[in-house]
Amino acid sequence: MTTNTNIRELVLDILIEVNEKDQYSHLVIRSVLDKYQYLDKKERAFLTRLAEGTIEHQIEMDYMIDSFSKVKVRKMKPLIRNLLRMSVYQLRYMDAIPDSAVCNEAVKLAKKRGFRQLSGFVNGVLRSIVREGDKLLYPDAAIEPKRYLEVKYSVPGWIIKRWMKAYGFEQTETILSNFYQESPLTIRTNRTKCTPEELQTRLINEQVTVERIGKIPAESGEFKDALGRLEDYAFKISDFDHLQSLQTFQDGDFYVQDLSSMLVAEMAAPKKGDYVIDVCAAPGGKSSHIAELMDGTGMVEARDLTEYKTDLIEENIRRHGLSNMKAVCMDATVFDRDSVEKADILVCDLPCSGLGVMGKKTDIRYKMTEAKEKELVQLQRQILKTVIPYVKENGTVIYSTCTIDRAENEENAAWIEREFPELSLVAMKQMLPGEAGNDGFFISKFVRRKHE
Ligand SMILES: C[S@@+](CC[C@H](N)C(=O)[O-])C[C@H]1O[C@@H](n2cnc3c(N)ncnc32)[C@H](O)[C@@H]1O
Q1: Fewest 10 Å CB contacts: which of 103, 246, 372, 402?
Q2: How many helices (H) and strands (E) in the chain?
Q3: CA nearest ligand 1 atom 2, residue
């Protein structure tokens, strides 16, 4: 049975929070779903799809609206532009909803929210899109390739420009279309609690569909071997309502992680008894993986900036039952004399622009700017400069990010080599979305040579 809540109005408020008040969509959507717990499964699914879909296709929606409205989107009242965006999304992407229902609901909402005088305008724009929208073409790829990709995939022009320069038009289009692929949720077995086969059985008993990850094509070398090892204990899961309510989740039998991120611990290749420092560790995905690989031996010091973040790490340590991992609140930009030459493995999975995960974090593309990205490159270098002395002779340094931007990745790896001649780059890989897992991810691995 559906409730009487106006889901469209909730979505409208979500869009206003995200687009006009600079809030993150996944946090706003989660808090609305938490507040309206009584919504039934269908309503929750509709709310999530409409909110996420509208944000994901926002530039395309604006292009359509601007093509049929005299007043441009950026000049409209915030409530009206967001109402139009979510209505056009329904017209274009939600075939089961009759066009007339979309228009009527939008008009009702405009009136309800105090814009009676603009309800005719809303109706007019939407009815024109119903009549003529199908004939509207994307910008011509041959004439305006950047604008074509920008509108078709709703990714801001500055990002497209950088990627076209780095990867060329065709590969950029492949990257962008991979962001829109349905992505399976991947998990790795916590082998300190159960075997992969036991986990599989437990999940099946909870009516979850579990599949092996299968073979991922990769060139030879360290990455291929690391991916090969993951095949033994990583799975794809689907057909569950609420992950956190699964007993296997509560028991810490698995950790949800993209395959590309799982490669960090496998590439770090910890030995039993190693001392590991992860300088930016929350919520603890890579740290807990390394701790599991060391099987109760050694120690992983998982550091992060705030207590809120170290609490998240603590929660993961507790749930996964890890005796060889601890959370420490520490600012990675501040030099810690006591850590010098302490680590066999130093993990630097640093704050980054996150553009490799825009398939999951839908609004990151609108929040990131070129100026913010430049600042991030500086922060990454500042952190690296501060923490690299923490690694022992013959120790390993991992520098990774969840972006596909060269300035933060390859260029920073080259900077590390220049700045720290005692470090040798032994492996480096830029994974593009859909290549190994669903995220775009970068890993580089260095070894600290003996003092001369
Ligand atoms: C990419 S995330 C780390 C993800 C984590 N490695 C994992 O796999 O679960 C980057 C982290 O860096 C932390 N961070 C940002 N600035 C920091 C600083 N100055 N010192 C320590 N941690 C910082 C953020 O709080 C965030 O949790």
Answers
A1: 372
A2: 18, 11
A3: 351
Range of the domain at 436: 259-448
Global confidence as pTM:
0.92
Ligand 1 pocket mutation, candidates 304, 314, 315, 319, criterion most atoms within 8 A of CB: 304
Residue 304 Cβ contacting ligand 1 at under 6 Å: yes
Query: How many residues comprise the chain?
Result: 452
Nearest CA to ligand 1 atom 13: 280
Q: How far apart are the CA of 429 and the centre of ligand 1, in A?
A: 21
Q: Is residue 224 part of a domain?
A: no
The CA 66 to ligand 1 mean position distance, Å, reads 39
User: Do 110 and 176 belong together in one domain?
Assistant: no
Residue scoring higher pLDDT (221 or 69):
69
Note the pLDDT tens digit of each residue in 65-122.
999 999 999 999 999 999 999 999 999 999 999 999 999 999 999 999 999 999 999 9
Residues in the annotated binding site for S-adenosyl-L-methionine: 280-286, 304, 331, 349
**What does the pLDDT read at residue 214?**
82
Q: What pLDDT shows up at residue 451? A: 64
Cα 378–Cα 291–Cα 432 angle in degrees, nearest 5 = 50
d(CA 394, CA 241): 47
Interhelix angle for 99-112 vs 119-132, to 10°?
160
pLDDT value of position 277: 98
402 among known catalytic residues? yes
In a domain, 17, yes or no: yes
Residues 73 and 158 in one domain: no
